[in-house]
Design a protein that fits this description.
By secondary structure, the protein is mainly α. About 60% of the residues lie in helices and about 5% in strands. The chain has 11 helices and 5 strands, in the order H-H-H-E-E-H-H-E-E-E-H-H-H-H-H-H. The strands form 2 sheets. Strands 3-5-4 form a 3-stranded mixed beta sheet, with helices on both faces. Strand 1 and strand 2 form a beta hairpin. It is elongated, with a radius of gyration of 31 Å.
């Protein structure tokens, strides 16, 4: 049998065919996809992530009062330049609809805002104050220290405490440099978009941008708004305004904005009921701030909180 195999098999499958078969097998195996970890793209990605991580690590700082660690890559000068550009645009739109500087409403805004500004390192810099004849429920402070209050929101700000709550929130945005932080976040978003593209994930630019906006930018914007609520509440409490008024402002805002809501996950701001709840939870902490700043009437303030919001301190 062995002799038969040695004589017959070579005839049925010549050596040349056997060699050709094995070479074909080797050729087939050689076209297997190369591991991603061995490709130039992998090393380029790792290098990019490493450099980006080092850049982020060297541009970290903490926000004032809230002490949140954040990434900041925009200089004060660049932020102020953007603010001045925005100021020119706003003035071009509303120049003819501003209350004069000597008007009682403008002077009231300046008086209350100046008290809050005095509690920040920005007190030694030049500020401008403007009241706009427009029905919008709006108020903002631009980098460059330009305060704008719109006529439409004035009925809600019927007391100095209510005015201080809104101005404190807007001044807090500038004090915490939220505009510069938002621009810094855009660099991160662009970097993430590039990494997604390099990774080879098959996703359209539209859905990639939508995912980054809904999953990163909008939640971050809501977080900064909440932080401005906290910092503003702290600043107005240092000035001895009643921080309990802040919750009332947003309750009135909720009434005024009925029928004009957007889904929370698509909003740049937290929902008003959520803000009211958070502001009330911070009131006991603000009591201590008022005590520290010798605001007086602390007992009356404590009783007011306990009666209005069922807060107990002891």
């Amino acid at each position: 049998m062995a002799q038969f195999a040695r004589r017959v098999l070579p005839r049925l499958w010549p050596r040349r065919q056997a060699v050709r078969f094995h070479s074909e097998v080797r050729r087939f195996k050689s076209v297997e996809p190369e591991s991603f970890t061995k490709t130039p793209l992998f090393y380029m990605t790792v290098g990019t992530v490493g450099v980006a991580g080092l850049y982020v690590a060297t541009h970290l700082e903490r926000t004032p009062i809230s002490e949140r660690l954040r990434f900041m890559s925009m200089s004060n000068e660049a932020e102020e330049a953007l603010g001045e550009e925005s100021f020119q645009q706003v003035m071009a739109q509303y120049q003819d609809n501003l209350y004069p500087a000597y008007h009682p409403v403008t002077r009231r805004v300046e008086r209350i805002a100046s008290q809050i500004i005095e509690k920040t390192p920005l007190r030694s810099q030049q500020w401008t104050f403007h009241v706009v004849r427009s029905p919008e429920l709006n108020c903002f402070v631009l980098p460059g220290r330009h305060v704008f209050v719109f006529e439409g929101i004035l009925p809600i700000l019927d007391t100095d405490d209510a005015m201080a709550a809104v101005l404190g929130h807007e001044i807090a945005h500038l004090y915490a440099r939220h505009a510069a932080e938002r621009m810094s976040l855009r660099y991160v978003v662009v970097g993430l978009a590039v990494l997604i593209s390099l990774s080879g994930i098959d996703i359209s630019p539209f859905f990639r941008n939508l995912m980054l906006q809904v999953g990163l930018e909008l939640p971050f914007s809501r977080k900064m708004e909440s932080e401005a609520d906290y910092i503003g509440l702290h600043l107005m409490s240092e000035c001895c305004f009643n921080p309990a008024a802040a919750a009332g402002v947003f309750e009135k805002m909720e009434e005024a904005q009925k029928g004009r809501k957007v889904p929370q996950y698509l909003s740049t701001h937290p929902a008003n009921p959520q803000r009211v709840k958070q502001l009330k939870e911070w009131l006991p902490e603000m009591k201590a701030v008022r005590w520290k700043n010798d605001c007086g009437e602390a007992e009356a303030f404590e009783k007011h909180l306990a009666g209005a919001y069922n807060v107990r301190y002891r």
